[in-house]
What we know:
This protein is mostly helical. It has a domain at 127-163. Helices cover 93% and strands 0% of the residues. The protein contains 4 helices and no strands. Helix 2 crosses helix 3.
Amino acid sequence: MSSLLSQDQLRIRKALSDSSPASSTAATRSLRHExxxxxxxxGSSDISNDVSTNHAESYFKRRENRLSARxxxxxxxxxxxxxxxxxxxxxxxxxxxxxxxxxxQELAMIQDQLQRAQKGxxxxxxxxxxxxxxxxxxxxxxxxxxxxxxxxxLIRVITKLSK
Length: 163
């Protein structure tokens, strides 16, 4: 049995050294299968453990690769979300800045108009309106008094005629 193992080991070593890396895995698999069939039940458990360990290792490697790929995708998505949020905030900021500038210009215009109205500048007709209104008010008071006097005179004439 030991001579079989040593011959198998020599064959495996020779096959591994002669073959290319791509075909070495296939050769290793076939040699393992051959060794499993030649060995009895005592030797097969060690080799089957080796095979199952390789399967477990490859499973965990694939799983790690999937998880890392998923993590990278989530990070990229998060980065895209941050980029979109930044661009949206930047656009909002620009819009608000333009509105602020417009509001500042309107405020300056209104303050200028208010100062002109308070000072009574010649370009402003507010002071002329006040003088005209005063004159009209005085004329209306005089006419109102005249109509009251005329009304009183008419009442007196009517009372004398009715007697």
